[in-house]
Amino acid sequence: MSVLIYTENWDGKFKKVSYELASYATKLAAEMGVTVSAISLGPVEESELAKLGNYGITSVMSAPCSNYTSLDNQAIATAVAAAAKKVGATVVILAQSNLGKAIAPRLSVKLNAGFVSGVQGLPVSLQPFTVKKMVFTGKAFAKTTIHTAIKVITLAPNSFGIVESPVQSTIEKFDGGLSDADFTTKIESTNKVTGKVLLTDADIVVSAGRGMKAAENWGPIEELAGLLGAGLACSRPVSDEGWRSHGEHVGQTGKIIAPNLYFAFGISGAIQHLGGVSSSKCIVAINKDKDAPIFEAADYGIVGDVFKVLPQLIEAVKENKS
Amino acid sequence: MKILVLIGNVPDTTTKVKFNADKTAFDPSGVQWIINPWDELALTRALELKETSGSAIESIFVANVGRVETEGTLRKALAVGADEAIRIDADPKDAFYVASQLAQVANGFDLIFAGIEASDYNGAAVGGMLAELLGIQSVSAVSGVQIENGLLKISREIDGGSQLLGMSLPLLAIVQKGIAKEPRIPAMRGIMMARSKKLTVIAPLEVEVLTSIVTFESPAPKAACKMVAEDQAKELIRLLHEEAKVL
Ligand SMILES: Cc1cc2nc3c(=O)[nH]c(=O)nc-3n(C[C@H](O)[C@H](O)[C@H](O)COP(=O)(O)OP(=O)(O)OC[C@H]3O[C@@H](n4cnc5c(N)ncnc54)[C@H](O)[C@@H]3O)c2cc1C
């Protein structure tokens, strides 16, 4: 019996979320009294694989075949299922990310496992295996029991955190049993957001809405984000208008994020927007309308004009840094 | 080519969510039901593809798992232009249950659209499970679909960028926003025509329930927002640094 995590990597480096999965699985496995392993698919160097040991993973299986970088859903689900069978996994944990969401449901069918997505923190009980998840896009939580012997879950981002607990880990090569023909997803081009903080990985997010008036006014938003090492986000109308890319859209129909700090500039705080950000640890709202609903969700607020507040905030952050 | 679009029936996104007294079930009283927003966008894209495909796309079917009350949602899908609807007459118990029911009607379609999640239980599971049950390829976080000479050009979002993919049929595309601009609003003519379109009702299969919700909880009430004056940005940064400890 064991707990297995499916780690995610990008350009050969683990994504931050992989370390959160490792921390979470280590704690869960300790509570269950079982071992914990990780599966890594695609080229990742030994020194990088060894980092999982910092978060308690004792055994790492690595299938370095570059075919996996096409993120072929069918092939990855097959490989992770094979890894789960190999270690006799009773709980398999993936990230609630674009990739995790693509793989986990397929994997659960392969393993005859019950599946719950977007799990928040450790199970509320192990017998029966009951987890808490967000429902109605943040308007409620549901405690859900998984009845099957094997369980598959995806962990909501930033719902557990990264905890170091160094152990010696063994790294072994793993063969997912796939041939080239099993990879049918053909990538024609990739458009990488380079040099920027991944929105879903970001501890701080600077977000702006229609109150910014036009695409060309985003300069100070980008500057503030740069100073804070923050990810950039926006409300839906902003991406609908084409002022910002779809990748930045947060909310019910966009990304769901849970950073430590979320800045909302000129965002009214519609319920569909809040659905994507309400799990943030701290929300700061800047809006000229004192009755804007965003202030009900916010921890700190300034009633004021974004164009006046932004330059001051940028100055204050610079001062705070020095 | 035949397209199937999965249609979830969900509470309007502005619904005030309530539960029964012991918090074990959602209270549907007074709720307005809508097509799950992503499913609606998927249907819109399917209709656009059909309209521009010449005759390559023969038909667009829509399917859902739900009781007779959910037929309004299917009729709306027919009213905006879907050709036929299928309803599997059962209460959706969990994602695997729903996917298993849909698997009995989804065979033989070349392209299947599912939404990335349903806005009620946020399961993000039915599409992937259905693809696995059918043994076909899937792509998730799809934000664009084009058909060129029987081949699919799919845009998908990945964590950290986007990609253009070449995919062959059959395929299950799990779509997110971006796939179509605005959902269509049914016109009177469409609503009239929808009445005579075929809506087939199918009995559910016996399927084991793998997960169940024990109780619901409402989020903890939030403390009042601490206000800072417009010219006190410095004070705000100090509070974030020293009080909230998030900077
Ligand atoms: C099915 C459905 C799904 C949806 N999903 C999402 C979603 O995922 N994400 C999302 O964001 N929305 C979503 N929406 C849209 C949502 O209802 C709101 O329309 C949207 O969030 C509003 O965006 P906004 O706050 O940027 O714009 P507005 O509501 O127009 O608000 C702009 C705000 O800026 C303030 N403002 C203007 N000028 C200034 C200034 N100079 N200084 C300071 N403040 C200023 C105004 O007071 C106002 O509060 C969805 C809607 C539906 C129906």
Question: What order do the helices and strands come in, and which of them pair?
Answer:
The complex is a heterodimer of chains A (322) and B (247).
Chain A: E1 2-6, E2 9-10, E3 13-14, H1 16-32, E4 35-41, H2 46-50, E5 59-63, H3 73-87, E6 89-95, H4 98-110, E7 114-119, E8 129-135, E9 140-146, E10 151-155, E11 170-173, E12 186-192, E13 204-208, H5 219-228, E14 231-234, H6 236-240, E15 261-265, H7 271-274, E16 282-287, H8 294-297, E17 300-303, H9 306-321
Parallel strand pairs in A: 1-4, 1-6, 4-5, 5-11, 6-10, 7-10, 13-14, 13-15, 15-16, 16-17
Antiparallel strand pairs in A: 2-3, 8-9
Helix pairs in contact in A: 3-4, 5-9
Chain B: E1 2-6, E2 9-11, E3 33-35, H1 37-52, E4 59-65, H2 71-79, E5 84-88, H3 95-106, E6 111-115, H4 126-134, E7 137-148, E8 151-158, E9 161-167, E10 171-175, H5 188-196, E11 199-202, E12 211-217, E13 226-228, H6 233-243
Parallel strand pairs in B: 1-4, 1-6, 4-5, 5-11, 6-10, 7-10
Antiparallel strand pairs in B: 2-3, 7-8, 8-9
Residues 209-211, 235-238, 251-254, 266-268, 270, 272-273, 276, 287-289, 292, 305-307 of chain A line the site of flavin-adenine dinucleotide.
Identify the bound ligands: flavin-adenine dinucleotide
Give the name of the CATH architecture of the largest domain in chain A: 3-Layer(aba) Sandwich
CATH fold assignment of chain B: Rossmann fold
* Strand arrangement, major sheet of chain B: 9-8-7-10-6-1-4-5-11
Domain unit count of chain B: 1
Structural class of chain A: alpha/beta
Average predicted confidence as pLDDT of chain B: 95
Helix content of chain B: 25-40%
Number of distinct beta strands of chain B:
13
